[in-house]
Design brief:
The chain contains eight helices and five strands. The chain is of the alpha/beta class and 211 residues long. Helix 5 links the parallel strand 2 and strand 3.
Length: 211
């Protein structure tokens, strides 16, 4: 994927998540950029190309966090439908899966280059066995149908096993190549999820090892 000018990336990342954004508005933002220089025309052309590409991807459900109901449909998307995919294998009654859902829902509209998907493990017995999904939540990232990252539970995120921010997850996925670049700003950051505030009953009922 070709790199884009930082000024163009800044306009796209801050404005393109709005449902009512149009190309004219984005071009006005670029025109008003005080750092514009001799690369003005190249930037305007690149912004036009990126805006067109983003619209095309969003018409294919990029920018959404979608639940896929059957594993064949999921395999079709991963194998032929999208170059980059982040897939959450979950169970609806697992509290930690709900926490992961919240983070992914926040990232999906920012990272339209990547498809964000979720599937109930009970609807994907073949994939669960093939991919050896045993602990939930389980995030597997794919690039051109090849697995490039796996997050088991909350392993490797944040400052402790049970506390992490959306920014931590974004940084991890950018590092593995599942996301193009970091886009989440401090104003958009949902903050940390501190599981110390959970009730003892919730802790007793929530068991990551489901198999």
């Amino acid at each position: 994927m070709a790199s884009i000018d930082p000024a163009v990336a800044s306009v796209l990342d801050t404005r393109l998540t709005k449902d009512d954004s149009d190309e004219e508005e984005l071009l006005d933002s670029l025109e008003n950029d005080p750092t514009l220089d001799s690369f003005r025309e190249q930037r305007i052309q690149q912004l036009h190309e990126e805006f067109t590409r983003a619209k095309h991807l969003r018409n294919q459900e990029h920018g959404l966090y979608s639940e896929i109901k059957d594993e064949k449909s999921l395999m079709d998307i991963v194998n032929t439908g999208a170059e980059l995919c982040v897939v959450h294998f979950f169970k609806p009654d697992f509290h930690r899966c709900a926490i992961m859902d919240g983070h992914l829902e926040q990232l999906a509209p920012l990272h339209f280059d990547t498809r964000f998907l979720r599937i109930n493990v009970e609807n994907a017995p073949f994939l669960v066995t093939k991919l050896k999904v045993q602990v939930l939540p389980c995030i597997i990232a794919f690039r051109k149908s090849v697995s490039i990252d796996r997050i088991i539970g909350f392993e490797g995120l944040g400052y402790s096993e049970d506390t992490f921010s959306t920014k931590d997850l974004e940084r991890r996925l950018v590092g593995s190549g599942a996301l193009v670049r970091e886009k989440l700003t401090e104003g958009q950051e949902a903050g940390f999820h501190d599981m110390r505030n959970r009730s003892p009953q919730a802790d007793d009922e929530d068991d990551d090892d489901w198999d």
